[in-house]
Amino acid sequence: MKSGIMFNKSVIATHVFAAMYLALSAQNVYAQESTDEAASEDDIEVIDVKGFRGSLVKALDAKRDAANVRDSIMAEDIGKFPDLNVAEAIQRVPGVAISREGGEGRNITLRGFSPGFTRTTLNGMEVPAGSDGLDSGGVTVNSSRAFDFNVFASELFNRIDIQKTQTASIEEGGIAGTVDMYSARPFDSPGFLSTISAKAGYNDLTEKVDPRMAFLISNTFADDTLGALFSVAISDRTVRQEGFGSVRWQPTNQIGDGTWGDTSQLTTINGTPSDYCGAEEAISCLWVPRLPRADFFGNDQKRIGVTTSLQYKPSDDMLFTLDVLHSELENDRRNYNSMEWLVNRDAPGDFQGQTPLSMTVDETGKILIAGEFDNVTSWYESRYQVSDSTFDQYVLSGDIQLSDTLLLDVMAGFAKNDADREEIRYYYRSVPHYYAYDYSNGDGANVSYGDYDMTDPDNYVDAVNASNRNDRVKKTNYTAKIDLQYLGDRYDIKTGLAFNDREVDYQTGDGVFTAFDPSQYSRPFPYSDFGSGLDVTLVPFLVADFDKLEQDGILTHNYTPNTASSWVVGEKTTALYLEYNGDVDIADMLLRTNFGVRYVNTEVTSEALVGDSPVSVQRDYNNFLPSMNLALEVTDDVIARLSYARSMTRPNLGSLNIASPVFGYTTFTVSNLGNPGLNPYESNDVDMGLEWYFDEEAMLAVNIFNKEIVTSLDTEIVEKLVEEEFWPVIYADPQYQATAPLGDPAVQSYTHNIPVNNNDGFSVKGYEVMYQQPFTFFDRWLSNFGVVANYTHVSAEDSTGLSPNSYNFTLYYEEEDYGARVSVNKRDDYLLSEPGGNGHAQERKFGPTHVDFSSFYNFSEQLTFSFEIINLTDEIERIYGTGDGDMDLTREFSHTGTQYFVGARYTF
Hints:
Elements: H1 9-29, H2 51-65, E1 70-74, H3 86-90, E2 96-101, E3 104-110, E4 118-122, E5 125-126, E6 157-163, E7 177-183, E8 193-203, E9 208-221, E10 226-245, E11 249-251, E12 268-270, E13 287-289, E14 293-315, E15 318-341, E16 355-361, E17 368-401, E18 406-430, E19 433-438, E20 446-448, E21 460-487, E22 491-510, E23 522-523, E24 543-544, H4 546-551, E25 560-561, E26 567-586, E27 589-610, E28 613-633, E29 638-649, E30 662-664, E31 669-671, E32 681-695, E33 698-720, H5 727-732, H6 734-737, E34 750-758, E35 762-774, E36 785-796, E37 805-814, E38 818-827, E39 830-833, E40 843-845, E41 849-858, E42 863-870, E43 877-881, E44 889-895, E45 899-907
Parallel strand pairs: 4-7, 12-16, 31-34
Antiparallel strand pairs: 1-6, 2-3, 4-5, 6-7, 8-9, 8-45, 9-10, 10-14, 10-44, 11-13, 14-15, 15-17, 16-17, 17-18, 17-19, 18-21, 19-20, 21-22, 22-25, 22-26, 23-24, 26-27, 27-28, 28-29, 29-32, 30-31, 32-33, 33-34, 33-35, 35-36, 36-37, 37-38, 38-41, 39-40, 40-43, 41-42, 42-45, 43-44
């Protein structure tokens, strides 16, 4: 079956040309030695310690010297990042927790804030990057502000900074903080350098071997005045996520027609059902799994990343850099579910007549934890999904020293992300049969089908198309910045201007469905060991034969644009800042100061076709953002920090789009409408910290933070006139014309159910504890051990993605020829949505504990072998609902297996 996805050959060819040039030039300059220092944004102490321990030292120096509160992750060597996944590397930083999709990190939450509150930059400019979900958590294409870190291979990056407090020179947008990523550049390591690495990954659930390769070549020429670097990282990944789900629990009287089928054969009820809901029969109040189902999510993933960096340094006073990055993430999925309909449904297929035989009720009398049924109808869902995400960035920057006291930095860049997803979903309906489930022994269910044969094609009676659609999200950003810095004796003054032009374009299309006989288009389940490694019963079943469906012309890839649901949101921002940095002596202590203010104007444009007519709504707002960072060097080893800032995060794009509004001309109501007039979230942030660098390469630190959100968003009922931009659409609507002049939008107020700003306020506060130390106080081999640990506590109103407690712990052993480390990451349960679906007060995700292992052996100065284990304990991922308050009702229960990597890396 075709995937519909091709890697962008023209873009890759450009990078390959640069690599060929580097390789041909290498022989002429290989013997040259360079004495110039690599240009970087921060002066970092040169340390002889290498490898993982060396990367910790460099990160510690960067943190110590920073004006603001900042943590960094450094590459162990050029093109060698500590973790295989960017998000999983960032989660080692205190205050960071991640969410996973299909067994790998995708989004981050910083200090308790959901992913959209963290701003992400690449090589100095804000970048958009999005893909779609891989697992049962959802498959929506990311059209939000949240950054999908799984788009990029970790081998592409040399450094990542996590800015936790604001300065005036840091661009606005991240109340939680800013993640700055940097790809490798030739002047990072002057002279000729080339590395190649290859890894084979084996997953014990898929039982397949996947390749992962990376190559980097870098050189400097003409007395180190010219430099060029090329790198490429390619990987394949086979994902198998399987488990058991319920598609949420719900009270019986709220499902379908709210009744059981034939209850005359219900002879056994263990426990006492509660009649708390007021139904005629107490069993109609019971919370039951809406669709108890076996889940399989399979994905063949391909990722490629390419970077090219060209640098020109005509003199010690000038440096010009061109960074180009291209990345593609391709997913080809086949997802299968078997689900049972237990309660009478008002749904296609006449799901009526289910016969309950026995029930077991929990001690509260509200939950049906086990049951036996006859005449149950199954739906067998097969999903074909293909998606790809393509990212391109071009950044041209220049650093110019105009005089001994005046520095000029300029930058212009363009970035775009194209994410496309195609989904075709079929349901096969079964003949009625026996079914039993039992949730009493754990989070998943043990099930039984009696004598019913799920592999008999004759038991599949018809097919229904549930979804046939295409979604595409295109994100772009144009950036231009100019910064001027004056250097005084013990101070500097910076000022700058920044312009951004961002746009998110969401388009969707609908396909057609042709009826067919499922018995003629089914095939056996792809795995005979379905459910291995789980304490639940998963029974294989027949699935749709997508290849045959496409071959016979039933499955097509033609889509009609759904213009009513498509939208475009654009933002143009212009910012100006002034910043002062200075050193002051207080007694015998040095006080490093940073003061500044940032002004930004934001113009919002929201566009959509409403009733076949183009509508455009434009709004703008201004923000003043003062900031202060103080670092007092109490002694040579102790730094006390105090920071204050006003920060902002712009509204989620879904809150701004105006597609598909519904106008009630007789009820005077408006629903399903965004609000482009929203102002951003605003926060007053205070940080206090104490850092003790008690030994070389060692630190103990505590940081306390408090973010007072003074402007936030909520959805409320508002009485007001309809925005003037919609009047022509309403006047042209035949339904309005039939009621006119009743409901005239120019004079009649309408009841809007829309997102609005509020000033109710809430706070997010907490503290971080960090400890890092090599065990050099021991003798001999014990001195090669070391530890990195941190703990974060966040206290706030329950908000999406917030885990009250999280910790990271890494124990490492490292010497010149070999080393190993084990890392543990744990976070508390966290909120997914409030309210949850189907009557749940909340939906939450279980906080997993992930254990990873990494080791290396240096066979020679050039050749290194490695062995790594990801998700050593094959952690269970679980989503649950809280019912009417404090219940624990499993929605999804799954695992993805343990991943093993064996690799080699050679440096030329």
